[in-house]
Amino acid sequence: MTIKPKQIAVINHQNIDEIAARDIVRCKVKAIINADETMTGSYPTKGPLILLNAGIPILEIGKDCFDKFSDNQFITIHSSHIVVNGNHIPFDLFTEEKYKQLIKISYENLPYNLNHFIDNTLQYAQKEKDFVVQPLIIPKLKTTLRNRPVVIVVRGKDYRNDLIAIKDYVEDMKPVLIGVDGGADALLENGYHPHLVIGDMDSISDHALLSGSEIIVHAYPNGSAPGLERIQSLGLEAKKISAAGTSEDIAMLLAYEKKAEMIITLGAHSHMIDFLEKGRKGMSSTLLVRMKIGDKLIDAKGVSKLYKRKVKLRSMWPLPLAALFPIVIMAYVHPGVRDIVHMFWIYIKLSVF
Questions:
Q1: Transmembrane ranges (predicted)?
Q2: Which of these, 36, 218, 225, 276, has the minimum number of CB atoms within 10 Å of its CB?
Q3: What is the strand order of the sheet 176-180 is part of?
């Protein structure tokens, strides 16, 4: 269900990540009730602070209380408890002070987590190398990628701003646009129509699925594809790719195998915090995919932070001249104005000569 402005969002989300927090802020909710730890201190995340800075209170309740809530339910929030269907549910308020304590702990835990993350990545890289070494089995597609630039939009940090930052490139080069799950919604929000939608269909809207894009469901290596049920429930058709790794890995490999000229990614996950926030303990498949693609891959993540153009006064002087030019021309061609100009010119000549 879509969250509407001024509603209260009841979630079950441990370590609220930055992407989720920004989406919640965009929804303009009144408050958040979280049936899990908003922040554990296991790794640094900005999500809770983004919510607090936006003036959205975070109320933490017990995990077993989540099922007591349902959509469009009326609830009352008191100073220490929530009343829903006659149940009095106590809560703890997540404060900025608590965030400061946990962010300090998380940075102290960072060396341990990094060590574990590297070990996990190397361990799974050994298991998943065949997935990358062998060609990806791709069904026949309607969309042609050969010798064309491809832009892959993933629902990651700053993906919306980065998409706006490369607007001129998209309009000039007309690349193939691939939306990975929620990345398809970002493309539509900016006036672009994704050629391909790839993912397990867990964070994409029905609107994006119904937009007419070619749909590829990312299935597990054993062929199981829970996302396919959603596609079929909407009366749509989709192709399927069964493979290990993440959906953005599949999107990059697909572009590579289909001989794309260049592969540009926006919002792609590329470091430890990215993957921990995504719920993954390593990045083996992504590391191997990037190694395989090589210099065809351009990671444009964060490009919107590189340069913000400032309007300079000296670059604006032609604007008033351009605005006055048609006025002057129209005034001159008017008979009355022409006569006045002519008389003024005669007066100057008589006065001087």
A1: 315-333
A2: 36
A3: 239-242, 214-219, 196-199, 176-180, 149-154, 262-266, 297-299
Q: How many CB atoms lie within 10 A of CB 186?
A: 24
Single-letter amino acid code for the residue at 245: G
Half-sphere exposure of residue 245, counting CA atoms within 13 Å on the CB side?
28
Which sequence spans correspond to the domains of the chain? 8-94, 129-305
Q: Which two tokens stand for residue 140?
A: 């026949």
Please count the residues of the chain: 353
Query: For 95-122, what is each residue's pLDDT tens digit?
Result: 999 999 999 999 999 888 888 888 888 8
- Between CA 113 and CA 276 the distance in angstroms is 10
Which tokens in the block code for residue 198?
């790839």
Residues near 206 by Cβ (< 8 Å), separated by ≥ 6? 234
- What's the Rg (C-alpha) of the chain? 28
Asked if 188 contacts 213 with a C-beta cutoff of 8 angstroms, the reply is no
Q: Structure pTM?
A: 0.76
Return d(Cα 65, Cα 61) in angstroms, integer: 7
User: Which distant-in-sequence residues (6+ apart) come within 8 Å of 106 by Cβ?
Assistant: 39, 41, 42, 43, 44, 45
Query: Tokens 């964070």 appear where?
Result: 203
Integer Cα distance of 231 and 233 in angstroms: 5
Interval 37-86: pLDDT, tens: 999 998 899 999 999 999 999 999 999 999 999 888 899 999 999 999 88
Classify strands 76-77 and 81-84 as parallel, antiparallel or unpaired: antiparallel
